[in-house]
């Protein structure tokens, strides 16, 4: 007799696609329960594994599964209404969420577009930049300057600004419009003392190349897009905040809009509420998602400065003053109500407003950073390991060779951790509520899995 989980895995095989996978990619676990920072997984052989979720459901589930405050927000809203269209209608959850976002974000960001996923918020940011340039009488500015190594989503425009080699450009070349790519900035290390270590000379070379590239293409560029300080899905790569100050200067010099994609980094993950704050700059447009949702329902947002919104209102270009986007589930009340509760937990404010001196996220992320630094340190001794990087609530083991995803994640599951390696990277971005013991378990499982699979 097969267990229920075994037959579920059988029924999934060949029926459902999973992310970036072939139909028959196999090697799945069934989730039987999710509670706090833990998942209860069932494998294809009747085994059960209680694991700490090092991925926080792709970096979104910061407050834990079945969080009482988020559950209560969801229940309260579902009793009222789960969804209404946003065209011509509004509701309390959307307005409250936008107020909270504007209160938390860098001060010049004043206006909010609610999108149904991170990729869509990037699409909307790019559209807005094009509409802005058109309204300013520069309709020929149709392209974007992006960084090599970046990731901004899977829809076509978002994909076009992802890394042109590691992204999916080759598969969809004709539909990925030709953007301008600056080199990947030099790597940086963020020390316990808060210093950024990097090669000064490499940074100067990068800066000179990027300034030259921007000057050369300025006439056709609408904006610059970057993930501040941490390139996530493009390689868990940390670069110096000074890069962002250079991008800000370039944007100002050539009348480009600077778009900060904070979908992975926002809401404290890198040790600042927003990663642009490491550099002390403000973007013109910012995208947020993932942690915004508390890991419950798909939602993202794009924020912009008053000048950009004003240009659309009063512009002289061919595009109308409306921002040309409006998904069916825009501003979904259920997702917004949960996001409001999620932001309140982060800031400890219990409502829209200023955060206290030591907001809950600051205490939590500082603890994650300490725990990851100590629990991943032993991995440095393994021959297979090239580098260990930690920034805020992000812990990365970079291997010398590409990671065997199925083997490594199975070895980690055996040791009580859920990780999903990619390329040569075994990394975690754990829930903010992880205890010290759970962080130790994650680090030990990652190190143990690498040691098992690569023999040290
Ligand atoms: C995850 C991510 C996206 C895409 O968000 P989805 O909600 O998956 O569409 C875009 N940019 C960055 C930096 C991300 O990490």
Automatic annotation (TrEMBL):
It comes from the Bacteria. One of its GO terms (biological process) is biotin biosynthetic process. It is found in: Cytoplasm. Gene3D superfamilies: Aspartate Aminotransferase, domain 1, Type I PLP-dependent aspartate aminotransferase-like (Major domain). Catalyzes the transfer of the alpha-amino group from S-adenosyl-L-methionine (SAM) to 7-keto-8-aminopelargonic acid (KAPA) to form 7,8-diaminopelargonic acid (DAPA). It is the only aminotransferase known to utilize SAM as an amino donor. Homodimer. NCBIfam families: bioA, PRK05964.1. This is Adenosylmethionine-8-amino-7-oxononanoate aminotransferase. It comes from Glutamicibacter uratoxydans. The lineage of its organism: Bacteria, Bacillati, Actinomycetota, Actinomycetes, Micrococcales.
């Amino acid at each position: 007799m097969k267990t229920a989980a075994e037959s579920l895995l059988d029924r999934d095989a060949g029926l459902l696609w999973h992310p970036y996978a072939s139909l028959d990619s196999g090697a799945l676990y069934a989730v039987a329960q999710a509670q706090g920072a833990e998942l209860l997984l069932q494998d294809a052989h009747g085994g059960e594994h209680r694991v700490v979720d090092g991925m926080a459901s792709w970096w979104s589930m910061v407050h834990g599964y079945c969080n009482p405050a988020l559950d209560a927000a969801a229940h309260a809203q579902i009793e009222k209404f789960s969804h209404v269209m946003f065209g011509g209608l509004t509701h309390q959850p959307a307005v409250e969420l936008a107020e909270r976002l504007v209160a938390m974000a860098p001060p010049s960001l004043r206006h909010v577009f609610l999108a149904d996923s991170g990729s869509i918020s990037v699409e909307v940011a790019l559209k807005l930049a094009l509409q802005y340039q058109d309204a300013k009488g520069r309709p020929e500015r149709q392209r974007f300057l992006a960084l090599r190594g970046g990731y901004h989503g899977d829809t076509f425009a978002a994909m076009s600004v992802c890394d042109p080699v590691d992204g999916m450009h080759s598969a969809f070349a004709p539909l990925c419009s030709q953007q301008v790519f600056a080199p990947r900035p030099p790597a940086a290390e963020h020390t316990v003392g808060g210093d950024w270590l990097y090669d000064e000379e490499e940074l100067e070379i990068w800066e000179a190349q990027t300034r030259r590239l921007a000057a050369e293409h300025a006439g056709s560029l609408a904006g610059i897009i970057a993930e501040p300080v941490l390139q996530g899905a493009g390689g868990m790569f940390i670069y110096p905040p000074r890069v962002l100050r250079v991008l800000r200067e370039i944007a100002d010099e050539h009348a480009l809009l600077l778009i900060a994609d904070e979908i992975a980094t926002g809401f404290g993950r890198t040790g600042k509420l927003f990663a642009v704050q490491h550099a002390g700059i403000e973007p013109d447009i910012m995208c947020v998602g993932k942690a915004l949702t508390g890991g419950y329902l798909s939602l993202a947002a794009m924020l912009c400065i008053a000048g950009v919104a004003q240009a659309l209102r009063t512009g002289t270009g061919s595009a109308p003053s409306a921002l040309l986007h409006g998904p069916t589930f825009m501003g979904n009340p259920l997702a917004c109500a949960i996001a409001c509760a999620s932001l309140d937990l982060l800031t400890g404010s219990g409502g829209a407003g200023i955060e206290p001196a030591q907001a809950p996220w600051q205490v939590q992320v500082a603890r994650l950073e300490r725990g990851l630094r100590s629990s991943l340190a032993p991995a440095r001794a393994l021959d297979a390991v090239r580098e260990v990087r930690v920034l805020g609530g992000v812990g990365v083991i970079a291997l010398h060779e590409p990671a065997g995803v199925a083997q490594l994640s199975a070895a980690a599951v055996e040791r009580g951790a859920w990780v999903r390696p990619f390329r040569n990277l075994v990394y975690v971005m754990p829930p903010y509520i992880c205890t010290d013991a759970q962080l130790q378990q994650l680090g030990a499982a990652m190190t143990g899995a690498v040691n098992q699979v690569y023999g040290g």
